[in-house]
Amino acid sequence: MAAPARDTGAFDPLVELHGLCTPELADRYLPIPGIPPAKYECQEGHLIVTPYGGSANAYAAYRILTLMEPRARQLGRRVYPTLNVRLGISRWIQPDFAVLGQPARGRVWIPSESVLLVGECVSPSSRTAERIDKPAMCAEAGIEYFMRVQVSYSKGHAEVVLRRLGEDGTYEVHAKALAGSTFETELPFPLSFDPAELLED
User: Fold this and answer.
1) Where in the numbering of this chain does the Putative restriction endonuclease domain appear (predicted)?
2) Could you tell me the pTM of the whole model?
3) Both 143 and 161 in a single domain?
4) 44 and 117 housed in the same domain
């Protein structure tokens, strides 16, 4: 049986801010010293810390950004890797990629009304999606598009699903494709590619 943790008297954000966390407090106390680089997200004031995904998700996010960037820029949009997207007073997420309606110009916290699309890269080993219901939170915040990218090297699998906010306030499938076929959409900007491109060869 492991010995109980010793109380050092140090301020621990995971304990002291439980249920109370806000972006303002995050600016003051995060990142937490002594732990590996991680994503810090928050749902109803509860801080959620998850490790970054592996190389499969990192590469997929990089590739989707390179595919999106020229098309989005033509319409004045901007694509970014992980950002702090603020969804409410005590809610924020750090999606794997995002598209904003205009340049962020150095802002640290991005309000949801500035976000056109958020995207997540997941894999069978990914735990991020199980810890926080990002589509529901983004829909509630009024973000029009949510993209989910799933990759698996063991299965040679890649899938892209783009959802658009419907009149009932929930996401509906707008476009989807598997590796070996073509993902194609005109909105929120023209995009056409084979999801297999998201796998390293």
Assistant:
1) 35-190
2) 0.87
3) yes
4) no
